[in-house]
Amino acid sequence: MIGLSDTLLPAIAPGSCGLLVSVRSAAEAAAALAGGSDVIDVKEPSAGPLGAPSAQTVCAISKRIGNRLPLTAAGGELVDAVSPPEFREPDLAAARGVAIVKFGLARAAKTDWRSQYARLMAVASAHRPLPVLAAYADHQAANAPPPAEALSATAQAGSSWLVLDTWDKSPGAKALLECLERDELERLLRTAQCAGVHVVVAGRLDASAVARVAELLVKVGGGGLVGVRGAACHGGRTGTIDEAAVRQLAKTIRSHAARPPFPLRGVLTDS
Ligand SMILES: O=C[C@H](O)COP(=O)(O)O
């Protein structure tokens, strides 16, 4: 199994919960860092739910953040990914400090997506960053497999991370907690914990949903992240990251999580 210490993500403390903020520029990354985000996720929101950023953007953000926070990036949809992975832009794989690249499962329901993911994982040890599946809670609309199937494929492939998100980001579209009942989400998180999989829970979460998800992640106890863009922006997800909004979200999460997600940060990061 590819463990956390094999990625550039430090080990996440059991029972903790952290904040991941998706950004599209170095200036936004700086605002997320200053606001108290635990992970910086690089994504181009105008290019879809998991819009892949350009290599130049990833490199600029990596340069601005250095090793102060772990970095993840969106890689688009798995069905569009090449194998062996080039993550759309060859330089992206080489971008210093990117721990994880997330691949969505839209349009994959009727494809052999498990094998495609297994192939990506097979070369992951030689090609950082680690490819991670992003399951969509609104999977029917996305023509994607249900989240429980994505979780089982994640565990089977030996990956330690899964992203749970929503596909439809249009104004008025359902948020994660409107697509998944709380009990259903709790069951999924418990199954993930038993399988040794950490979950990034995202999907049009507003401030109150962030609090509910953080509480649930801490209750379940496996250690996970709450992922946001829209709630951290001034002017919605295609607007601009607002440092004060990030600070408020980080504070909300800290009020539920007794300990920071990466207490050993700085010891286990960058290798
Ligand atoms: O990983 C987090 C996603 O970027 C969530 O974006 P959103 O809050 O706009 O749905």
Automatic annotation (TrEMBL):
The keyword Lyase applies. Its EC number is 4.2.3.153. Keywords: Lyase, Schiff base. The active site is at K43, K102. InterPro entries: 4HFCP_synth. It catalyses: 2 D-glyceraldehyde 3-phosphate = 4-(hydroxymethyl)-2-furancarboxaldehyde phosphate + phosphate + 2 H2O. GO terms for molecular function: lyase activity. Catalyzes the formation of 4-(hydroxymethyl)-2-furancarboxaldehyde phosphate (4-HFC-P) from two molecules of glyceraldehyde-3-P (GA-3-P). This is (5-formylfuran-3-yl)methyl phosphate synthase. It comes from Botrimarina hoheduenensis.
